[in-house]
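Pasting as-is:
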Amino acid sequence: MGGSEKTVVQTIIKRKIRNPEEPQENGGWKVAYADFVTAMMAFFMVMWLLSSANEDQRRGIAGYFRPSSDLNRAETGSQSMLDKGILHGGDTLDAAREAKLESVEAQSSSADERHQNATQKDLKAIKTLFSDLYKEKLGRPLSEAQIGFHLSDEGFQFDFFESKGAELFDASQNPKTALIKLLDIIAKMTDHIEYPLAVEAHVQAAPLVVKRPQDWTISSARAGNVRVMLQRLGVPETRIKRNTAHGDNDPISDNPMAQQNNRVSIVFLNLTKE
């Protein structure tokens, strides 16, 4: 044979034509299987948690998932097991639990009453202390024309009001002599009263046509300067928890432009109040 013969390999591509009526395989079963495995894992995790929980914890979990009695009545149209007072194996709701709850409420009410009585007693004692120091330092009995005292939401509050010819601050918003004497009394009171202080400053409103944009600036400067003065008079910086500027937003008089609204409030923060 004179030469080598080449073998030609022919590639045949066979294309399968799918019958559209045949069911098409997809990965949908994988999603369902994953959901099943996840549910089983969650189930066994819950079973494990319940097995390691004590009786009180299991009772708390059961109470969390227990439907309300109103919902049961709406769904069944009859009185539910909970409404009948039946729980776990037919045990009747323990009357001692209700008695204990009533006892706790009574103790809470009694504690609130005792606290209110103690607060009123403190209020009277603080006012008496201020009056005694006022008479000692100023040489005259306390006049309430420019001084207010009441129990606020935060504690025992003193209000020092301005009146015509008896201004509290000078043009630089520094306390004048009359206010300094009152602040000195407050400083002396901190030796006898353990509550921290809050300083608040208010200013009178101006007519809208001449509305002063600096109202907030003025009240802020006054609150800050009162704080500084209290520190100079011996009040530790840590005792003054805050100083607040109210601008003209909280008038004490029915007339927001009355001079009496120019005032300083010193609050002994009664932290025992809830």
